[in-house]
Design goal:
By secondary structure, the chain is of the alpha+beta class. It is built from 9 helices and 21 strands. The structure holds zinc ion (ZN) (3 copies).
Length: about 325
């Protein structure tokens, strides 16, 4: 994991594609991002492609998340790519070291233990059985009568024999032949969520998920997290945006803040929510503060017309939210 600045990390965090991916991890829908092999393009990450739309941007997107410490990697495989066209549709060929053709024959060497004669398996082959060409005895039991003594290759072109061929590659896409020296040899990873982030984000997810589910069960169309473009053109993230239906203009924006120390939540969260609300202008804005809001924050919430819900936990917050929704619909 590389060290990156807080601002850079915050920038990634605001990326809606990352939020969608993070949600898949936190909801348990995704445990690991395993690559799936595609014969033409090599390994791909279909779940990520669904999120970001453009398959060519997937690896850049994932590398960025890794560099900022959001994801960690486990080596999954290594792939060979063509140096000319970058295709992963590459075969391995074994070449004759003398004339470099791939038209070679590979045989096993067999040693007849009792007489010590060694030759290729085809020289022992006698219809359905193995017979020693030197002493004419039958070889019945492996490891007792005979044993494998390695491999032996012979070239169908230059007719020479050798034990170790030269490995090379052939690109099935552009037909280029290339050697190890020129091969593009790449790592492919499985990606997992960084545990620290998982804990941080998991705490927040546990706060938001029940409120989101509650609103959904009450017939709201809910997006969580949700990104809305403000009048300024800037994108703002809210924990939850709820509306009566998908097309509704009357949006309810909800942010949830937890005081990690159990003390009052600072008014800063009201100020930052107001900045977003001012730009986005949802019909209603609500900040849920757990366990409570500071005195200054309460005053600011009233001034900024942000509905403040203070509750000891998310369940108590849901009760208060329900009461406030009933009140609104009664108005
Ligand atoms: Zn023999
Ligand atoms: Zn040869
Ligand atoms: Zn190629």
């Amino acid at each position: 994991m590389l060290e990156t600045s807080k601002e850079e990390r915050a920038e990634v965090y605001r990326d809606s594609r990352f939020q969608l991916l993070l949600n898949k991890f936190l909801s348990g829908e995704l445990d690991k991002l395993n690559p799936v092999y595609d014969p033409q393009q090599g390994y791909r990450y279909p779940q990520v492609e669904l999120i970001i739309g453009d398959p060519t941007l997937t690896s850049e997107f994932l590398s960025r998340l890794y560099e900022h410490g959001f994801l960690r990697t486990e080596l999954y495989d290594k792939t060979i790519h063509c140096p000319a066209c970058d295709s992963a549709n590459v075969s391995t060929r074994y070449l004759c070291p003398y004339c470099k053709t791939f038209d070679i024959r590979k045989n096993s060497l067999i040693e007849h233990i009792s007489c010590g004669y060694i030759d290729t398996d085809e020289r022992f082959d006698n219809r359905d059985k193995l017979v020693c060409p030197k002493c004419n005895k039958e070889l019945a039991k492996p490891d007792v009568d005979y044993r494998k003594a390695g491999v032996w290759c012979s070239c169908n072109e230059c007719k020479k024999s050798f034990d170790i061929p030269v490995p090379s590659h052939h690109c099935r896409n552009c037909n280029m032949d290339f050697m190890f020296e020129d091969a593009q040899y790449r790592n492919t990873y499985t990606y997992c969520l960084n545990e620290t982030l998982m804990r941080e984000a998991g705490t927040h997810y546990k706060l938001v998920a029940p409120v989101r589910d509650f609103l959904q069960s009450h017939g709201f169309h809910v997006e969580s997290p949700s990104f809305l473009k403000g009048k300024s053109g800037a994108n703002h993230i809210f924990d939850i945006i709820a509306s009566i239906d998908e097309t509704a203009k009357e949006l309810l924006a909800i942010d949830i803040v937890l005081s990690p120390t159990g003390e009052a939540v600072s008014e800063q969260s009201i100020i930052s929510m107001f900045a977003k609300v001012f730009d986005v202008t949802p019909a209603k804005a609500c900040l849920i503060a757990i366990p409570k809001m500071s005195e200054n924050g309460r005053k600011l919430a009233e001034l900024y017309k942000i509905k403040l819900i203070e509750a000891k936990d998310q369940n108590a917050a849901i009760d208060l939210l329900e009461a406030s929704l009933d009140q609104t619909s009664a108005e």
